[in-house]
Amino acid sequence: MELPRKILIGDGVISSLSEFVQDIGYVGSTIAFVTGRTVKKRAGSECKSSFKTSPVKATWHIVADSSVSSVLKLKRSLIKDIPDFIIALGGGRAVDVAKMTAYHLNKPFISVPTSASHDGIASPFVSIRGSNKPFSIKAKTPSGVLADTSLLAEAPQRLMASGCGDLVAKITATKDWELARDENNEYFGSYAANLACMSAKIILNESNELRTKNRYGIRIVVEALISAGVAACIAGSSRPCSGSEHLFSHAVEYLVGPNYGLHGERVGLGTIMMAKLHDVDWELIIETLEAVGAPTKAKQINLSEPQVVSSLIAAQTLRPDRYTILNRAKLDKRSAFELAKSAKVI
Ligand SMILES: [Zn+2]
Questions:
Q1: Which of 3, 177, 212, 329 has the fewest C-beta atoms lying within 10 Å of its C-beta?
Q2: Rounded distance, CA 218 to CA 211, Å?
Q3: Distance between CA 340 and CA 320 in Å, rounded?
């Protein structure tokens, strides 16, 4: 198991980034910050001023997307002047690109999320566009996670709602894992599964608190996302966090395109349908997503009925090594349509 060594969550903790890094044991002289243009404007100066008194040389690298070419571009610029460690400051894109590059260069990496939108902030898994694998792959586990709740609270509500979609997904992901144990004789880690499931249950229980984007709500979501990421670290695979609902989301990205909803929004829709297949309380998933302001209908993320149906069918064959409820359901055009309709997604 490789786990994050230190996790710090709280209001204004970004000002102690320098001490955080030293506490983890990185007293190197060069840091590479990987971020997005908007985030750099929002939080860059606070990061810089945190290192004011330490004699470190920082370079800044802006990433536009989480594609293979962004990873290669970052790798090329870091190879010239290899940093002692990499700090990802941002949402999904910066964290994914930094994590993948840190893995390639075998350098430690610290995650500083600026939105609570997905569980990759603490897990070793990344989704990189344009690779031959249209699903998450293993990269570097963050050595540290620093989550500043005042910074996270500034992010749009839609991002936090998307994070909730990625969290309710753990209900169906862990059901799929149980199924793989029972029907496909796979290893099942009950501790990791319980931990992932717990981070979904807290969202189901507290959903009404989460709509009003207060600090309490942000803290619940970010803690749950970090716990889910740690569950993936413990399992050594994305199994506790990603099942058939993620396959649906990856199929949408692969077949229809990357700009239909956010990761957690697509995963949330997938969770409703896969919960129905698993015969668990799918209506509670809908209520929860509605309460946090996440989409529950395909049209809310501009997906048409035929696109949902073809993505459900493609999801079954996208990742042959991942046994899920889709292996049992064997959806065809008609049954996929009926599933989406009866789960009220279309
Ligand atoms: Zn996810």
A1: 212
A2: 10
A3: 22
Domain that holds residue 262: 157-342
Distance 105 CA to ligand 1 centre (A): 25
- The rounded distance, in Å, linking the Cα atoms of 335 and 276 is 13
Instruction: Verify that 191 and 237 share a domain, yes or no.
Output: yes
Hey, which residues does 31 pair with through a beta bridge?
58, 85
Q: What b/e string do you get for 194-211 counting C-beta neighbours within 10 Å, with b at 16 or more?
A: ebbbebbbbbbebbeebb
- Do residues 111 and 182 both lie within one domain? no
pLDDT digits (tens, 9 = 90+) for 29-86: 799 999 999 999 888 888 888 888 887 888 999 998 888 899 999 999 998 878 999 9
Asked, for residue 141, whether it belongs to a domain, the answer is yes
The pLDDT tens digits for 145-193 are 999 999 999 999 999 999 999 999 999 999 999 999 999 999 999 999 9
What's the gap in Å between 317 CA and the centre of ligand 1? 19
Distance 267 CA to ligand 1 centre (A): 7
The partner residues of 30 in beta bridges, in order of sequence, read 57
**Euclidean distance between CA atoms 98 and 33, whole angstroms:** 9
CA of 166 to the centre of ligand 1 (A): 5
User: 10 Å Cβ neighbour count for 249?
Assistant: 30
Could you say which DSSP state residue 320 is in? T
Q: Is residue 259 part of a domain?
A: yes
Tell which of 153, 169, 187 closes a domain. Answer: 153
Q: How far apart are CA 255 and CA 249, in angstroms?
A: 10
Question: Which CATH number does the domain housing residue 112 bear?
Answer: 3.40.50.1970
Centre of ligand 1 to C-alpha 240, Å, is 10
- Pairing relationship of beta strands 125-126 and 137-138 according to DSSP bridges: antiparallel
Name the pTM for this structure.
0.95
What is the per-residue pLDDT across 97-126, written as a single tens digit (0 to 9) for each? 999 999 999 999 999 999 999 999 999 998
Residue 131 lies in a domain: yes
Q: How many domains does the chain have?
A: 2
Q: How far apart are CA 42 and CA 182, in angstroms?
A: 48
